[in-house]
């Protein structure tokens, strides 16, 4: 029986080669997209799912509120972990960690120690960390390896990197130096192979901070008023403990331990317990420098794209199969007459669909590695097609069954329902069945055009917003500026001054400023500002920038009133932006000049000497906030070099020469640190990496949806023209022109596209508005986006169908009528 099913199926494929090819290609595209998207989504949704008792593990995070402005961080106060251990109930284990980025030195025999620069997966941790998160111990004591100061536990991967020729047991007792801190290896654990954000590889005993002055100062173990993002706490609750009760205890401990600050009335600070499955997806709290959060919205959007592309392939299959129904009617009638049951016919047609789907899945599996390589720039490198994963095999099997049923169930039911008496009299399409099938094909075709046009509209809008963000006047100059951060470990004010003097001597450099972050950057430094106008107090959270007198000149920030900051200014002379001036009650910027702030940045009686025009401190997602610019003094206020380059001559390489000279000057001042620079306009562009990735994915989805839709359209056009061959011949004999015949054959298509356009436009407009709500400053949803989509889809469809309609219209009518 199965052999007969296969024989009949392949005979059918041979008779309808083109339609079979269209079905396989359409399904292959949809299944390829689904497979790649599954790999991406599965990768992100499996992060940290392997921990034992994962539902009882939480990270303690901090929430702040000031004057209605919310901020969040994964960091906590230094003393919190100790307070939880001694004062909170319901907590089984408490594990404080502190992230470091030290240079690692391993003693060598001949050429001195081996150096591993800026290792960013090094933490301070205690033994309870390994009680919360389960590791396989390869050497050392699993119970006491981190009890004593100056001990370190390494992962197996890191141990082999540091000591490649030694066994794990031989590595125990070896010395590893972190910057200047010498530690002794006391344990080795198996490197985690599963997806995790906690991919640390060096665990220094937390108690080291109690004997090392530098680390102790960073840990701030007695400072309840300070929150450091490097200081985090994980806890594991006892079974059946309510997280809300523990959270209330932590906030009560904070309230009891913190000192009241009357000037900060209206502000709040609290702790929240963050579940493990939220860490990888919550950008408010983030993860670690070596990892990044994923967006559930983006992942769900990818699933929708995969579903749409699969749906398009299935629609093609249903349309083309039902369109060919009349050609197989006699086969069905004869088989029923010979004794075939309806169940057997359904199995036959479903088996044909299954074979087509299986071929499409095999093609998709072969294409997947190339697709992943195509999107390698923004897909995690760990994502790959790995058939060792049972989940991937199950997904492919399930996808094959689901697509086979979705594509083949209705055609199988419809084809098997033909009555032998009617089909053998050439009446298979009589009465209502032809009408039902035609309306089904039209409805499915409209659905295809709706999906394709939605993708076109979304792609154009995202591209328009990206263009708007990159070309909008942000309130400062961003071209021909290089930004260099001095090394945070080795920087000194004297070294920075020496380097600045060397750079000023380069002929290609127009101007240099020393200060903190650029006008718009990913980092933020804010403080509390207090102004009294005699009647009321105005408390505001104020962002701080520092720079010298060249800072606003390099970035061409417009001065609205007053003067620039000067080298003779103390910390009590500032420039503010126009937004802050308006908040203080000055509609005219000049009125703010000479006014004094009661407090700002821990200083009192601050004089406003200038007001600058507003500029965007971050991406267009964020609103413009109150801001103050102070004169840069001290090592960390002058940590960044802002360098304006002279214009290049046509065909010249002055900038390349300048960068090479900067590198040599850098090495003469900071010989142990890498020279790292970036053009400022590239930094601005990186704000919109997510949008560009979205645009790339939408562009591909749009192209594929149009391609699949046009494939199906071509198949239907071939079927329709073949069905109406004699009609076309009669019309030509009666005097119809080629244009009239093409118009006749294309009119229905045009009407279907217009109907799809009418349906999709309000849906797309609503979706666009929801997406644009993420931006504080955004472009408009222009009418031409919809016109371009409708017109583009119409043109693509007409061009596709014209290959067949024009061919049919210009054919010699004698050939089509000679059998009559």
UniProtKB/TrEMBL annotation:
Superkingdom: Bacteria
Annotated ranges, domain MacB-like periplasmic core: 20-252, 449-619
Sequence ranges assigned to domain ABC3 transporter permease C-terminal in this UniProt record: 304-419, 703-812
Chain segments annotated as transmembrane: 21-41, 299-320, 345-372, 392-418, 439-462, 697-720, 741-768, 780-799
Main localization (coarse): membrane
GO molecular function: transmembrane transporter activity
Keyword match Membrane: yes
Claim: Membrane is one of the keywords in the record: yes
Keyword annotations: Cell membrane, Membrane, Transmembrane, Transmembrane helix
Intracellular or extracellular location(s): Cell membrane
Cellular compartments per GO CC: plasma membrane
Membrane topology reported for the UniProt record: Multi-pass membrane protein
Protein known as: ABC-type antimicrobial peptide transport system permease subunit
Taxonomic placement: Bacteria, Pseudomonadati, Bacteroidota, Sphingobacteriia, Sphingobacteriales
């Amino acid at each position: 029986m199965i052999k007969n099913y296969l024989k009949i199926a392949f005979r059918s494929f041979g008779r309808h080669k083109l339609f079979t090819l269209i079905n396989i290609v359409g399904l292959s595209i949809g299944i390829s997209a689904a497979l790649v998207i599954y790999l991406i989504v599965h990768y992100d949704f499996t992060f940290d799912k392997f921990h034992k008792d994962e539902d009882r593990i939480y990270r303690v995070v901090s929430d702040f509120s000031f004057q209605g402005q919310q901020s969040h961080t994964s960091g906590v106060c230094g003393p919190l972990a100790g307070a939880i251990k001694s004062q909170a109930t319901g907590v089984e284990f408490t594990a404080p960690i502190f992230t470091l980025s030290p240079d690692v030195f391993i003693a060598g025999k001949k050429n001195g120690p081996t150096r591993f620069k800026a290792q960013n997966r090094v933490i301070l941790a205690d033994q309870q960390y390994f009680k919360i998160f389960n590791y396989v111990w390869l050497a050392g004591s699993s119970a006491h390896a981190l009890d004593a100061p100056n001990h370190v536990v390494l992962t197996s991967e890191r141990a082999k990197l540091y000591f490649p020729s030694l066994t794990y047991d031989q590595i125990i007792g070896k010395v590893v130096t972190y910057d200047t801190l010498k530690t002794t290896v006391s344990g080795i654990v198996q490197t985690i192979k599963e997806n995790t954000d906690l991919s640390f590889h060096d665990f220094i005993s937390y108690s080291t901070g109690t004997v090392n002055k530098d680390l102790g100062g960073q840990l701030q173990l007695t400072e309840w008023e300070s929150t450091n993002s490097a200081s985090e706490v994980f806890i594991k609750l006892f079974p059946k403990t309510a997280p809300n009760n523990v959270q209330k205890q932590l906030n009560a401990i904070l309230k009891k331990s913190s000192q009241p600050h009357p000037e900060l009335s209206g502000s709040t600070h609290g702790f929240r317990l963050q579940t493990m499955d939220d860490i990888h997806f919550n950008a408010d709290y983030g993860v670690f420098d070596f990892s990044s959060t994923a967006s559930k919205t983006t992942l769900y959007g990818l699933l929708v794209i995969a579903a749409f592309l699969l749906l398009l392939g299935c629609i093609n299959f249903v349309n083309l199969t039902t369109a060919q129904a009349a050609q197989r009617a006699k086969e069905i009638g004869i088989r029923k007459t010979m004794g075939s049951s309806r169940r057997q016919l359904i199995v036959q047609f479903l088996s044909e669909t299954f074979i087509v789907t299986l071929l499409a899945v095999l093609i998709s599996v072969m294409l997947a590695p190339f697709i992943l390589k195509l999107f390698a720039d923004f897909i995690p490198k760990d994502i790959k097609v790995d058939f060792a994963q049972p989940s991937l095999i199950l997904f492919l099997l399930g996808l094959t069954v689901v697509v086979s049923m979705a594509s083949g169930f209705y055609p199988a039911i419809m084809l098997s329902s033909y009555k032998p008496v009617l089909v053998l009299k050439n009446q298979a399409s009589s009465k209502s069945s032809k009408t039902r099938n035609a309306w089904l094909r039209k409805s499915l075709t409209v659905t295809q055009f709706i999906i394709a046009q939605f993708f076109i509209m979304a792609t154009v809008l995202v591209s328009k917003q990206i263009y708007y963000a990159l070309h909008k006047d942000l309130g400062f100059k961003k071209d021909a500026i290089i930004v260099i951060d001095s090394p945070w470990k080795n920087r000194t004010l004297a070294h920075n001054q020496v380097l600045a003097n060397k750079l000023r001597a380069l002929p290609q450099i127009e101007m240099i400023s020393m200060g903190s972050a650029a006008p718009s950057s990913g980092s933020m430094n804010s403080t509390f500002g207090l102004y009294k106008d005699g009647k009321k107090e105005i408390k505001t959270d104020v962002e701080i920038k520092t720079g010298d007198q060249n800072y606003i000149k390099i970035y061409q920030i417009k001065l609205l009133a007053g003067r620039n900051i000067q080298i003779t200014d103390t910390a009590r002379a500032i420039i503010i932006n126009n937004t802050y001036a308006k908040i203080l009650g000055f509609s005219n910027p000049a009125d703010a000049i000479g006014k004094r702030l009661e407090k700002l940045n821990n200083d009192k009686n601050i004089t406003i000497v200038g007001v600058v025009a507003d500029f965007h401190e971050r991406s267009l997602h964020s609103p413009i906030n109150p801001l103050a610019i102070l004169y840069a003094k001290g090592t960390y206020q002058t940590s960044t070099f802002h360098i304006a380059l002279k214009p290049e001559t046509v065909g010249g390489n002055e900038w390349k020469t300048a960068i090479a000279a900067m590198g040599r000057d850098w090495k003469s001042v900071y010989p142990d640190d890498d020279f790292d620079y970036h053009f400022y306009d590239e930094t601005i562009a990186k704000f919109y990496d997510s949008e560009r990735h979205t645009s790339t994915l939408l562009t591909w989805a749009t192209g594929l949806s149009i391609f699949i839709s046009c494939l199906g359209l071509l198949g239907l056009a071939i079927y329709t023209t073949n069905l109406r061959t004699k009609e076309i011949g009669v019309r030509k004999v009666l005097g119809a022109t080629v244009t009239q015949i093409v118009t006749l054959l294309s009119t229905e298509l045009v009407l279907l596209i217009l109907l799809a356009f009418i349906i999709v436009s309000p849906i797309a407009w609503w979706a666009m508005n929801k997406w644009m709500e993420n931006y504080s400053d955004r472009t408009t949803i222009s009418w031409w986006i919809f016109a371009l989509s409708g017109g583009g889809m119409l043109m693509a469809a007409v061009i596709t169908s014209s290959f067949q309609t024009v061919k049919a219209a210009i054919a010699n009518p004698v050939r089509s009528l000679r059998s009559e």
